[in-house]
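Example record

The entry below shows one chain as it appears in the dataset: sequence first, then structure tokens.
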Amino acid sequence: MSSKKMNLRVNPNTQNYDITYHKLEFTVDPANYFITGKVTTTFTAISDLSTVTFDLTNQLMVSYVTQNGLALAFTQNTNNELVITLPSMLNSGASATVIISYSGAPAKGEDAFTTATHDGSPVLYTLSEPYGARDWWPCKQNLNDKADAIDVYITAPAEYVSVSNGIEPETPVINGANKTTHFHHGYPIPAYLIAIAVTNYSVYNQTGGTAPNQYPIINYIYPETLASVKTQLDQTPLILNLFESLFEIYPFHNEKYGHAQFGWGGGMEHTTVSFMNNFDRGLIAHEMAHQWFGDKITCGSWKDIWLNEGFATYLSALVIENFDGQTAFANQKTRMINSITSQTNGAVYLTDAELTDVNRIFSSRLTYNKGAMVLNMLRFKMGDILFFQGVKNYLKDTNLAYKYAKTPDLQAHLEAVYGSSLTEFFNDWIYNQGYPIYTISSQNLEGGQAKFIINQTQSDPSVSFFEMPVPIRVFGANGQQLDLVLNNTVNGESFTENVPFAITSLTFDPNKNIISKRSTVTLGQKSFDLNAIRLSLDSVSNTLSLDLPSGIAIEKSVIYNVAGQKIKETSSATTWDVTSLPAGVYFINVVTNSGKKKFKFVKN
């Protein structure tokens, strides 16, 4: 989803049972802001229950609740709860089914239930993420429970087409002026992903997947826009095939995929049917990606929302990479990096305090773009084979698939294939804030080598140092080009690399794989002539001296005897007292900032 305003609530009073099934029967008319519903819910007690609580706005009026045909007592309170008194204690592990009948004008605070018009025709649609489902039906909407299956029956005026999750097991039934359409969804689903829409849709059918695992793509489009969006919709099976090739088969391939046009300014990844304002390829890709990341595996808390939105944003960028090429992919990553670095702070993972800030939860800069670029950096650090294998393993983990995941679950799967800890990476890039600013200097050495020194500052004090492989590209005078990756783990780190030409210029991160800003690269003076270094021995004072031209610095010197035994080693010294050395032939190996040179001297 793109962002939406909402008021976050977690209800501790719904934690003592597990939803297994909903039968949702709704009667609506897109011309009227009103709903009549009958919701049949089967649940299993997690602890002994004498009452059961559902989330439901107190603006909807419950007329009766029954169990096995017996009317049950209930109350609706000012906390937007429906509290039902069970006929007897329901023991932990036991299941029960209740039927709730209600009606009214749904709460409008979160725009979860909307009626409007398009081209003069009425339209009704829902959008419940994250806590709007209770505004139009009695549910449990915390991120710790999914119904194992649902059946949805929508009764509406017969001239309209109704849409919901899953497939239609039978053709709609017309009864007088009304028509009832039945949808069955046989996969686990959280409350916020259940949706309905009703208007005078035109239907555009396609086919997704590859034999033998093909499935229908059903697009519900406003008739006035269908002709103009068919070409865009024809990208849908191509993108599905790409995601299946990169990750795994479409998670709901036993049912359908598709789109339903609606009036909210973005998209929403309702399971098997994304609700869409437009059919831009990037939006199609983003909402489709959620079917894997968000719908099959759902973030286990709103602090982990990047597991939904970061992945969907990155997969949309992967469509650019695979369909448009590396230059377009780098341009998209540049746009994301510019967004992320437009401010110096901000973490991907949310704090408790930030959960009250709706704009922060669905921040395009942090949740979407930084979440996506962190995935790109993990891919760059791990390599394509290991990164994609780790993500595939995450998707097929039976403890997560069609359930919920939190950030450590993804980290564990990536570490398992990488073979090394990613704790430092996750601490720096997910839990803490900011980004590195690099200053990289280079210098040509003799013998087809070049030296690079990397310095780094951080935009936010929460990270003391970002350990990252740093990509640079060097160029020569005759069009030569070489890509290097310097595994930078400490500040001021020096790297000597083989470069078979004199570097005339260089660039930092040419493919835009790292979140950074204002990073600079400089080319030092050309390689020095090490023959200009002179070694002399004063036979009176027994002092050995190196005469260095300007710009050359000694890093290490080692003196050996003629048998190759090490006599003395120093760091930056340029003079040595050799009085104690026996007479004979010696060698001194000198390591400078511009290369190595070996000298011979004779002590008399």
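Notes for this example: The two ends are 83 Å apart (CA to CA). The chain has five domains: 18-200, 202-280, 306-431, 436-523, 530-603.
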